[in-house]
Specification:
The protein is an alpha/beta fold. Helices cover about 35% and strands about 15% of the residues.
């Protein structure tokens, strides 16, 4: 089968700015109708992204905490040798060997022993931490882009990073680009500087990212120099060959934000290095943009006036996006809708409004190929089979200040009493905030860390109420829980971090794909999700096409011309959907729903 067309930029000898301009003016005709959401930690794993890419859609890996993920899998013995296989393709094997020497454990560590610490991110991180981050993101993208035999997958792969997790951003992107990532998708903040960073990294140029430092009057930057990075490692020759510059899709929640990015983003070309947008509504899982005017105030509690009876932020008409206005504002760039869009009729609505398609997260999060730990996945699927699940939009759980969706499960940290039993510790630190003390010295703190530590750093005790350690909870979701240095109250054994699962409001949609594969084991695949959204879409086209079977027999020439025009249009759309389904040749009635 011929390679599927996309709007990925080819590497050419033309200047970068010219290449970006050419891309914006000459996008290929076909773009993916489905973007698989980037869910961390490693829920959007390479296995899931690869499966979606194989199906002709945009598969996305999560770039969150990949430095920690790869070192923990190596300490687990790297089952199947998967990460070591990917690392063999990295251009600096001395760097790879240093990582393996420090973290790889043949056969894996005992379950009751803690993982080795990696160190937490600071504005000027160590070379070793940057190396782990580059290698982790490289390996995940490489695995997503290659079949088991090492051949390239016929499809495109992206990486999703959270803007709020600032410090690992540049090195995460660089590692992904070294593996040939096709797209970068970023939300949970305003990634204004990222397009320019991608431009620079494609040519191995030095770059920097402004870091938020509470209480500081000066601007602080995280600097990264690819040439210095590889020179320190002993492989300066790596930077001699330019990299493909991936397309950039920021996640936005308003027309105003999209306009601001097209005006002020740092990338080259008429669209400032932006190749499209994902519009995310408040129904999506993970972190949500807060409602217009909503501001969490730990001390005054003024935000409580904007909460519903359940204690969730209230979204209203001001938070809705006018698609007509959005389409005009983005000047022809493609856009996708996210949040409750895993439905064929929603895809139709978006396409009718001029959109390129939809982003789907929750339906993929619990698929067979996702990186969610098997036990946690099976628990959710079994509960779904028995009834409806509830999702709570927690206004305070995340230390980022963004509302965070939590799937309510009896055996998880979503239960307040269960969370309070957890020994409070901050040993990963991805959501820590930099702050300046009275002397101007930069430190790091998190409202989910031990309360005495938070207060010692100038934090207010009210800000610790309701906060949850997302870092450790999400790492446990991926099957990589840390053994805490502390014991749970009333227990003689060290506490092992527990899950805290996030999902979108449409989690119950999963019932449409769910099936028993034997012995009560429930599962569904990423292809099932794609077939449902596109296959049912095909079915509706097919049914409408039947109405035009006798179009050529109409007596009135004008009516006949209109009927035949519509028939031809439907036939073209059916052909396009068949292409999306990789030419399986299934009759519409046989497509899984």
């Amino acid at each position: 089968m011929a390679a599927r067309s996309s709007f990925v930029t080819p590497v050419t000898s033309a200047p970068l700015a010219a290449r970006r301009t050419a891309l914006n003016l000459d996008m290929a005709a076909t773009v993916p109708k489905i973007i698989q959401g980037g869910m961390g930690v490693q829920v959007s794993s390479w296995t899931l992204a690869r499966e979606v890419a194989r199906a002709g859609e945009l598969g996305v890996i999560s770039g969150t905490a990949m430095d920690m993920v790869i070192t923990r899998w190596l300490q687990r013995g790297d089952p199947g040798g998967l990460y070591r296989r990917a690392l063999k393709e990295f251009p600096d094997q001395e760097m790879v060997q240093r990582l393996l020497d420090k973290y790889f454990i043949e056969g894996g560590k005992p379950d009751d022993k803690p993982f080795k610490p990696l160190g937490m991110w600071v504005i000027e991180p160590s070379q070793a931490l940057e190396e782990a981050c580059v290698l982790g993101n490289f390996a995940e993208v490489w695995l997503a882009k290659h079949d088991d035999d090492g051949k390239l997958v016929d499809g495109v792969v992206g990486i999703n990073c959270l803007t709020k997790i600032q410090l690992p951003t540049i090195t995460s992107l660089y590692g992904a680009m070294l593996a040939g990532v096709d797209y970068v998708v970023m939300g949970a903040g305003i990634p204004m500087e990222v397009p320019g960073i991608l431009d620079s990294l494609a040519e191995h140029k030095d770059c920097k990212l402004a870091i938020d430092v509470d209480g500081s009057e000066e601007t602080h930057f995280n600097h990264f120099s690819p040439s210095t990075f590889f020179a320190r490692s002993g492989s300066p020759e790596v930077v001699k060959k330019n990299l493909k510059r991936p397309d950039f899709l920021p996640i936005v929640s308003s027309v105003t934000l999209a306009q601001a990015m097209l005006k002020r983003a740092t990338g080259a070309g008429p669209t400032r290095g932006i190749q499209g947008f994902v519009i995310e509504t408040s129904f999506a899982g993970g972190h949500n943009a807060p409602p217009r005017g909503f501001r969490y105030d730990a001390v005054a509690k003024s935000h409580k006036l904007a909460l519903n009876d359940k204690g969730e932020p209230i979204y209203g008409p001001k938070d809705e996006v006018d698609l007509d206005k959005f389409k005009k504002a983005v000047k022809g760039l493609p856009f996708w809708l996210a949040g409750y869009y895993a439905r064929p009729e929603k895809l139709q609505e978006v396409l009718a409004a001029g959109g390129a398609g939809v982003q789907i997260g929750t339906s993929f999060a619990f698929a067979k190929e996702s990186g969610l730990a098997p036990e946690a996945k099976q628990e959710v699927l079994q509960k779904l089979k028995k009834g409806e699940l509830q999702v709570f939009t927690d206004p305070v759980a995340s230390p980022t200040g963004f509302p965070f969706k939590v799937l309510e499960l009896d055996d998880s940290l979503s239960v307040k009493e269960k969370y309070l039993e957890r020994p409070r510790v901050c040993n990963l630190g991805y959501l820590r905030t930099a702050y300046a003390d009275a002397d101007g010295k930069v430190g790091y703190r998190c409202a989910s860390e031990p309360i005495k530590d938070w207060l010692k750093k100038g934090g207010e005790i009210q800000a610790t109420e309701g906060r949850k350690c997302l870092c450790n909870g999400l790492m446990a979701n991926a099957g990589l829980p840390q053994v805490s240095p502390f014991k749970k109250a009333g227990s003689d054994e060290k506490y092992i971090e527990e899950t805290l699962i996030t999902a979108g409001d449409d989690v119950n949609q999963i019932k449409k794909y769910l099936r028993d594969v034997g012995d009560g084991h429930l599962e569904y695949t990423a292809q099932d999700v794609i077939d449902y959204v596109l296959g049912r879409f095909k079915e509706e086209y097919d049914n409408e096409l039947k109405l035009y079977a006798d179009a050529d027999k109409a007596e009135d020439p004008e009516v006949k011309a209109k009927l035949l025009e519509r028939k031809e249009e439907l036939e073209g759309k059916l052909k396009e959907v068949d292409g999306q389904l990789k030419g399986k040749g299934k009759p519409a009635a046989e497509v899984s729903n």
